[in-house]
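The protein record passed on below.

***
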Amino acid sequence: MHAHRDFVSLVRENIQKQGDDRSFTFISEERGQSLVGGRRPPTPPGTGPRYKENVLGFAELDREARALACRLEARGLRDRAVLLLYPEGLEFLTAFLGCLYARVVAVPAPMPDLDAGRFGRTRRIIDDADIALILTDTAHRDMLDRWLDDTGLKGRVHCLDTESGTGVDPGDWTFPEFGPGTLAFLQYTSGSTSEPKGVMVTHGNLLSNGEEIRRRIEGSPDTVGVGWVPHYHDMGLIGQFLQPLYLGCRYVFTSPITFIKRPVLWLELISGYGGTITVAPNFGYELALRRITDRQMDGLDLSSLRVAKNGAEPVRAATLEKMAERFAPVGFRPEMWMPCYGMAETTLLITAAPLGGGPVVRDFDGEALTRDTAVPRDARAGGGGEVRRLVSSGRPVSLDVRIVSPETRARLPEGRVGEIWVSGGSVAHGYWRSPEETRESFEARTVDGDGPYLRTGDLGFIADGELYVTGRIKDLIIVNGRNIHAHDIEEAAREAHPATLAGAAFVMDTAFAGDAVRGDVLDDGREQVVIVQEISTRAAAGTHLDELASLIKTHVARAFELPALSVVLTGRGTVRRTTSGKMQRRLTREAYLAGEITELVGDLEPDVAEPRRTPA
């Protein structure tokens, strides 16, 4: 049992021990400024972007959070949900911790793109969580006020600029009563396959998952984290911001936009600040591989790194291997890799590779996997048929992880593919004001009555104690009784030609293309697999696009014995994604059916194109 009953007590104990010797450091891109921390500047003087180091010590963070907590208390907001809309930076940390100190339920969310009219998700969160107050910074206060006025929310929902000085004395703050079951915040899911839902994360959940992570990474106050994942994403919020408070350690970060503009900055920060751990989805490492030049690697030193976590989306074996090979000359070692698996519904971490062991990558019989059976393939033994290379997501620390048949709810043995079920202290208390969905997802029991378990909605299997995640139930494509995961089709398409980028595979019902699709099942010949495939036209130079589409189609169709497959080539950025970068296959399919996707060229089955273009 944890020594503390609430997360705030542990955080304040660490703050009193460490003071401002531990800090959060935000690296922002600002003209005319130079980075002053770390062992070397990110770029030689005058040769590229300049960066500013913004530091917030733990003691200063605590003072600001206590002052904000007093302001929230004065508004009578205890146990009420408050929306946090901030750009990346240090002010969000003050706001989030201030909410915790006031026993106010924080709801982190991405800043809406109001200029583009993209505020639908924000409005749904406001309605779902019964939001009466939005916390933001000075730069965005007026803009959000105008939006509230335009949408008729003004008067019902107010904005509070947490940067403005009010003369509140932090010493006036009084410690609220907390318990393990006290609600800490709502983590709205990214909505990659469904409408966003508010996951209720308690103080007990934060303590349990903080300990799970600490034990797996062997974290301590000497840990130095470096990252760029957004604060409203569970990987960013828990792994990058709350875990340093749990450990009492230093954390250095930049914004996702700054990282995407210049990916080498990520590695420069690890090198300059002696980073020991970093976390990112697979696409972040892919971007680093594609965009970091040999010249930019000069002077880098990644030898301080002990852990490179890779999770939040399928982990590709090729990414792990290429990253370790490419950056070996600057100190990256394969044993740094820590593939992991987690989700908002479990606070964050479920499984991860043991520290220093590196990734476990194995070959499995592709045909057997379509029959929900994992049969290891020894490359030395030869043999025909498709081989699937899978990266293990590691092992649980203390959570109970089972593989269960989603149809019969019977527990499955090692080597059988089923739904991943989880129980333990990290499992959240359910979905906000959604009792039916909470019962279905968080209170599942096996056919033998064991439980309650969280139904993750993910499919996978266990082999030699290692968890392998194979896909999501909702992204499953069934062809002639064989189960094929959408991301496997997308992976095969990416391997067909160097010009291929991200792709989204889905099923299209050619009989009812203008209506809601009935399900991802190829049963009567009317539903067919479609791949919307982004390509780099520069990398495709020398290959006609018609030939490229045909090549992808042939490669994928042969790999999975698909009787009907259509390939649509599009430009970069076409595939729909969530704010945290996860692919949204269903939204991509809807956009395709609505004719909203610009095709460069298509290799379509005869009955695919016509229904889509037929007016409703």
About this structure: The longest strand covers residues 454-463. Confidence is low (pLDDT under 50) at residues 36-47, 511-526.
